[in-house]
Amino acid sequence: MTKTNKTDIQQDDIEKPNGDSIKTERFDHDGFWKDLIDRFFYPLLKRTIPELYEDADRETKQRPLDKEFTDILNTADPTIHTSPHFADYVMEVPLKNGEAEWILLHLEAQGHGGGNISERMHHYKCLIYAHYRREPVALAIITDKRPANEPAYYSHEHYGTESVYRYNRLVLSELDDDEMIESDNPIEIVLYAAKFAMQTKEELKKFNFLRKTIELLGERGWSLNEKRDLLLFTERIVNMKDEALVTKYSEILRQYKEEGKNMYIPIALRDQADDLLARGRKEGRLEVARNLLTNGIPTDIIVKSTGLPLDQIQSMMN
To answer: Does residue 3 sit in helix, strand or coil?
Structure first.
């Protein structure tokens, strides 16, 4: 998907309205990954810990153990407190046999900083066991390049006493592009986008990547809701900022809608909706709903976007 071909947009094809790029806030990597895991938890589990995936009761949603994890952090030791550069939390996974497993998740998005990951994983595991007598299944997701000599597991030897702690790891830079593109697991699309975003900062390449992601999603047999969410997450992690390219991308989505291939709310409409909803007026929500209906957005998406009841939105269609 990243290779340039005759259908790629080239730099000469773009006309910037004023030569400026859109100014955006710093990307929230921790928030992105937490949202992604919440939405596609079981596909991620299938990708990273297939044995647990097979044993999990996938008809029941996983449960974040926010309070339990906060409890183990209730200590005066400053070295274990979560910083803005980390996202660590625990999930409870229901099993088919009626029991449950705890998963310790560590998301590393800080690159070469952030201390020793293996030591951090071991520390949290010990705290969970000391506090709850639970042995968590552990998964570290490494979203940026790390020091070449960093160990992949924790080990310590002291006067004949040795501790070794191995855990599951997903390292974006080590994932194979072709395998992700060809996979029938929806999480692979966003993992591929995350790897692309880690390696590419050029706006034009971001545009071509997003356009080809639309084509790739169109070929998949996933549900409409899954395709919408995958495209939304891909947009977030790719984080395209150029105003002219955003406009051209919105035109592509509009064309897909006209061809009956609409996947979700286009960027321009979402920006408009965010602006109106931020005013906190009922009139603003109604205006958003009318605009989305006019653009053929499904009612379930409008309900989620505006907070208006379904019957009120349906009455606006008459």
So the answer is: coil
